[in-house]
Specification:
This protein is an alpha+beta fold. It has a single domain (2-160), classed as Phosphatidylinositol 3-kinase Catalytic Subunit, Chain A, domain 1 (Ubiquitin-like (UB roll)). Helices cover 37% and strands 18% of the residues. The protein has a 4-stranded mixed β-sheet with strand order 2-1-7-3, with helices on both faces. The protein has a 3-stranded antiparallel β-sheet with strand order 4-5-6, with helices on one face. 24% of the residues are buried. This is Crinkler (CRN).
Length: 161
């Protein structure tokens, strides 16, 4: 079994820990994080299909993010530090990769390995349970995803000038 610690980016909350078989694929790891995030949360912080959730490795300069790091504290408050924005400018983990491959079989204690990125909760109105039309929801999800990526990339580009 392989243990992973992750943080939901852009939403308040703590560190989420899951364990999966090291031969499992990243898609299974993603589902494990979604289930764990929503397990005791009556509002279900992740309210979308699993394939709309992206996972990123929480490594800066090849080193896992320490769990006591100030950036982790910012993440748990719903903030997104600049170093984390840089990670999010990259590509998410491939759902078909093996869990062992992404971490080389090593997920040290007291570190965060995964950044979890889900679309905003506004896709479903949790207060009354009404869902928008499926086509409009998909359009909204795509628009949100593109807007977030564009904002992050623009901020990084301007910062690098």
């Amino acid at each position: 079994m392989q243990f992973f610690a992750g943080v939901l980016v852009g939403q308040r909350g703590g560190v989420v820990c899951v364990k999966v078989d090291e031969n499992d694929r990243v898609g299974i790891l993603r589902r494990a994080f979604i289930d764990e995030v929503n397990r005791d949360d009556k509002d279900k912080r992740i309210q979308c299909a699993a394939d709309n959730v992206e996972l990123f490795l929480a490594q800066i300069d090849g080193v896992w993010l320490p769990s006591r790091d100030d950036r982790v504290q910012q993440l748990t408050k719903g903030e997104i530090p600049e170093d984390i924005q840089d990670i999010l400018c990259g590509y998410p983990l491939d759902a078909t990769s093996s869990v062992h491959e992404i971490c080389n079989g090593s997920t040290p204690e007291k570190t965060i390995q995964i950044l979890i990125v889900a679309p905003p909760r506004s896709v479903e109105n949790a207060s009354n349970g009404n869902r928008q039309e499926p086509e409009r929801v998909n359009q909204f999800k795509l628009l949100v995803k593109l807007t977030v990526r564009l904002k992050v990339r623009l901020k990084v580009c301007l910062w690098n000038q």
